[in-house]
From TrEMBL:
It comes from Micrococcus cohnii. PANTHER family: S-ADENOSYL-L-METHIONINE-DEPENDENT METHYLTRANSFERASES SUPERFAMILY PROTEIN (PTHR31760:SF0). Its EC number is 2.1.1.-. This is Ribosomal RNA small subunit methyltransferase G. The gene is rsmG. It comes from the Bacteria. The keyword Membrane does not apply. Pfam families: GidB. Residues 12-28 have a biased composition (Basic and acidic residues).
Amino acid sequence: MTERPGQSGHEGSYDQRPGLHHDERQASERPAPVGQEPPELPAELYEAADQIFGDALDAAQRYVAHLADTGIEWGLIGPREVPRLWERHVLNCAVVADLVPQGALVADVGSGAGLPGLCLALARPDCQFLLIEPLERRVEWLDMVVADLGLENVDVIRGRAEQVGLNLDVDVVTARAVSGLKSLLPLTMPLLGGRGQLLAIKGRSAADEIAAAAKPLRKYSGAEPEILTVGDDVLPQPTTVVRVTARRK
Ligand SMILES: C[S@@+](CC[C@H](N)C(=O)[O-])C[C@H]1O[C@@H](n2cnc3c(N)ncnc32)[C@H](O)[C@@H]1O
């Protein structure tokens, strides 16, 4: 089994870009605090955010500020998303934390601007996160934000999931808006150990995507996929997750 970050003492080996690992950045290289006024956490969502992030709520606010500023500037987020960053993106992703087992090693495939990977890393300091993202600019942004937030439970890996992850043997893979379930399964399921699970954030198409993915589901999973809703107790719009359990190795 591949050694896990934090256990091996070789955490830097997960990062394929020389000289760019976030752990190696000096404080002086970290981004200046964002200059643009960040979107306020809406009062009606404060309780949910407080419950989900706890001690990390300040860091979550700083993350949202990054999304609204450099996230837009660098083209990771559309400017129209700013007013709904909290509800539609950050909290919507963070509620998936309820489905992540204690102490899990989690790979977030196609992290983009850290959705859901960074939201979950903030909400779940007991877990370790690998953010897998092929695009250089996005990886650079993720490294910058991880360093600024001081997140010690995150490693950013540059590459495509099918190239970087074969022996990671993680407990959970997460993915949002990467591809339909049929194409997502071959990208994500090989990263899992025999008892692991894919948590794919989906919308109303969840049942259709499951129907279209019958063949890869037979290959990678021995059980029926589940459609779950999370966050219905704290958010106006809950999050739909397709959970696929890996076939035992
Ligand atoms: C539409 S974006 C979604 C980003 C983020 N998950 C979100 O919900 O906002 C899809 C992301 O998946 C990444 N991606 C595409 N194919 C991938 C692959 N084979 N392995 C890992 N990431 C991939 C892209 O670079 C992109 O950042």
